[in-house]
């Protein structure tokens, strides 16, 4: 079963997360297939830019609790998006949770519909947004992000723009993307690659400095008793034992 749909129009490759049965959760299989699609697009001289989007009403529900990717695989995917020599633009028309927010942060430009919602739900299942902090912390407002990290509250697209998670939002996300993609098509490929390197230098410093420690933290938390209780409670649709 193919989990990533690919289409192309005027040198823009669109990669769609296409696993709506589990709300495009980041399974080991989906992460691997997306990494392969990004590799192909990065090598293809006919591709000027990449749009990362989704089928269904959810961009991504975060890690697949039944088939999660190893933390190292998610780190590698996020770094791949950042290091790709072509701009990656996120197009979001649905909900984004937990690890899916790491994908948004790794993209160079992120545009969403005003109907989209967002939440860092990790703390509610007994873990932390560890690995996805690598692209998130260098690119977002730390005071605004603290509330969302610590409470797991749902927030809207306007708040996501204010936080720095999104570039822009509108009731019609494709109206936003039209001029963005046209601008990328009119830009020289080598100039785009060098400009992207300027923009991502600080983010890659965070990967070089913190990736090993955050990978270890993620693995430790996911194997903890609180995480087992939190994930079980989530799957059983009940409150975790610590809820007061």
Automatic annotation (TrEMBL):
GO molecular function, one term: enoyl-CoA hydratase activity
Record EC number: 4.2.1.17
Assigned keywords, A-Z: Lyase
Pfam families xrefs: ECH_1 (PF00378)
Signal peptide bounds: none
Top EC class of this enzyme: lyase
Similarity comment: Belongs to the enoyl-CoA hydratase/isomerase family.
Matching NCBIfam families: PRK07827.1
Protein name: Enoyl-CoA hydratase
């Amino acid at each position: 079963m193919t989990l990533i749909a690919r289409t192309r129009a005027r040198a823009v490759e669109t990669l769609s997360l296409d696993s709506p049965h589990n709300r495009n959760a980041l399974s080991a299989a989906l992460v691997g297939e997306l990494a392969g699609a990004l590799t192909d697009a990065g090598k293809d001289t006919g591709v000027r830019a990449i749009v990362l989007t989704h089928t269904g009403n959810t961009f991504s529900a975060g890690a697949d609790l039944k088939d999660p990717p190893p933390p190292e695989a998610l780190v590698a995917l996020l770094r791949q998006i950042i290091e790709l020599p072509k701009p990656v633009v996120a197009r979001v028309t649905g909900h984004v949770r937990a690890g899916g927010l790491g994908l948004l942060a790794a993209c160079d430009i992120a545009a969403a519909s005003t109907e989209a919602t967002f939440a860092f739900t990790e703390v509610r299942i007994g873990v932390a947004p560890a690995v996805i902090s690598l692209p998130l912390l260098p690119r977002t407002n730390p005071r605004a992000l603290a509330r969302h990290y610590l409470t797991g509250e749902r927030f809207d697209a306007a708040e996501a723009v204010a936080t720095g998670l999104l570039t822009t939002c509108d009731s019609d996300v494709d109206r936003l993307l039209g001029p963005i993609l046209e601008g990328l098509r009119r830009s020289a490929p080598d100039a785009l690659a060098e400009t992207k390197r300027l923009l991502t230098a600080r983010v890659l410093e965070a990967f070089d400095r913190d990736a090993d420690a955050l990978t270890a933290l993620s693995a430790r938390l996911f194997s903890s008793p609180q995480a087992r209780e939190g994930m079980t409670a989530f799957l059983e649709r009940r409150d975790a034992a610590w809820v007061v």
